[in-house]
Amino acid sequence: xxGRGHPAESAGGYAAPMEFSIRTGTADDALCIAALATQTFLxxxxxxxxxxxxxxEVFALCSTSAxxxxxxxxxxxxxxxxxxxxxxxxxxxxxxxxxAGYTAxxxxxxxxxxxxxxxKRRGIGRALMDAAHQRSRAQGAATTWLTxxxxxxxxxxxxxxxxxxxxxxxxxxxxxxxxxxxxxxRAL
Length: 188
What we know:
It comes from Piscinibacterium candidicorallinum. By secondary structure, the protein is an alpha+beta fold. The protein has one domain: Gcn5-related N-acetyltransferase (GNAT) (Aminopeptidase), CATH 3.40.630.30. It is 31% helix and 38% strand. It contains five helices and twelve strands. The strands form three sheets. It has an eight-stranded mixed beta sheet with strand order 1-4-5-6-7-8-12-9, sandwiched between helices. Strands 2-3 form a two-stranded antiparallel sheet. Strands 10-11 form a two-stranded antiparallel sheet. Strand 7 (106-115), helix 4 (124-138) and strand 8 form a beta-alpha-beta unit. The longest helix has 16 residues, at 30-45. The chain starts with a strand and ends with a strand.
């Protein structure tokens, strides 16, 4: 699948459209996925600096070995946005039907949507989500769902703009700290 980003207004004006492709990730992609995930994770969650618990979390969740294991899971698919050999973003999709937190909604879960910080607002996230929706429909899912940190206002606005509805809270717990995540659901 090929994508072409659309000009998008940003703080500095309009971002230039760009060409990129969407493809399914393989075990060979684990290293680049881990690097992009670490970069994006810290850009999102470490705005005020890095605490020890946050450092432990990013190294546990975003290690190359963690992604190698996830890439081998039969129900997990990584959709990669690439330009040549460059990884620009990815969506991690769990194809099995799961319940969306404490809600009554069930569907395929979009576990992560990460776009390199300097590549945002160029159509990459939307193209990855479109590809995730297509894969979910092909699995017979009627909905997709995801969670977003309550303080990630940019992501929450993006999900609402592409048709997701906020249907409740699902706390995320790491090292005895609880963080508010919002559950978003979209009918396919």
